[in-house]
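$ ./design --mode recover --in tokens.txt
reading tokens...
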């Protein structure tokens, strides 16, 4: 077993029972509020196919636009949206959005967490620490002079969005939200997945986050896990499956 597997899986034993705040929220009835958090090199518009399915099925869906200037800023942006919910919510994160929901998920509104090809750090871990231990195949991330990251547009399709049409990936490559590099080196202080139920979708052809790291994340959190064919952008290419997992979380977390 790789050292990172031993390190990451050991923390799974720390998972405990549901917190009183979560139990109170979840007992109020069926969950109809969904909050979606995007990751790096993208924006909330990528959630549109999932949004359309969920709203058609009667869910109240809100989207967070994290500034990606710091992890605390991104958590605060998520908490602002959670504060607007009129009851318990399922909090969903893609990619770096998983780190955001791991911290923001401690909010009393949150009844469950859904991770879509996402980072899921433990207390004291950062996304950069875990990626360095189990790197993906991506080699095209560059840094600006003032410390922000972006994917070389020439490699965006292959490294980030290989399961999308080339024209769509081309457009996304020129609409990237550049994260501050510091966000990837900021550790989680209180991982919400220790006390709240989780669901995880692994992207089997992901280059941006290693699928093996995704599997480690899901296993140590004892997440309800599904693996699908697709690249890092399964939240777009596999929107139906993603929406189905979110709805399952909403139905199950309410019980």
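writing sequence...
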């Amino acid at each position: 077993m790789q050292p990172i597997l031993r390190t990451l899986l050991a923390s799974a034993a720390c998972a405990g029972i549901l917190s009183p705040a979560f139990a109170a929220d979840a007992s109020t009835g069926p969950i109809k509020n969904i909050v979606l958090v995007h990751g790096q090199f993208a924006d909330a518009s990528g959630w549109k196919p999932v949004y359309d399915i969920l709203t058609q099925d009667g869910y109240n869906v809100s989207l967070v636009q994290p500034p990606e200037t710091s992890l605390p800023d991104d958590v605060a942006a998520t908490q602002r949206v959670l504060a607007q919910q009129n009851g318990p919510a399922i909090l969903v994160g893609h990619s770096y959005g998983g780190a955001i929901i791991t911290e923001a998920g401690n909010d009393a509104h949150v009844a469950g967490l859904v991770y879509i090809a996402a980072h899921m750090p433990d207390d004291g871990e950062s996304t950069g620490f875990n990626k360095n231990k189990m790197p993906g195949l991506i080699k095209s991330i560059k840094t600006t002079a003032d410390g922000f990251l972006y994917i070389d547009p020439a490699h965006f399709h292959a490294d980030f969005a290989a399961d999308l049409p080339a024209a769509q990936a081309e457009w996304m490559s020129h609409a990237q939200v550049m994260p501050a590099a510091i966000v990837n080196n900021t550790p989680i202080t209180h991982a919400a997945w220790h006390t709240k139920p989780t669901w995880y979708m692994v992207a089997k052809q992901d280059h941006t986050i290693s699928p093996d790291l995704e599997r480690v994340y899901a296993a140590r959190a004892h997440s309800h896990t599904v693996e699908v064919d697709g690249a890092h952008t399964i939240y777009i290419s596999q929107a139906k499956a993603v929406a189905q997992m979110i709805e399952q979380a909403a139905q199950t977390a309410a019980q």
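exit 0
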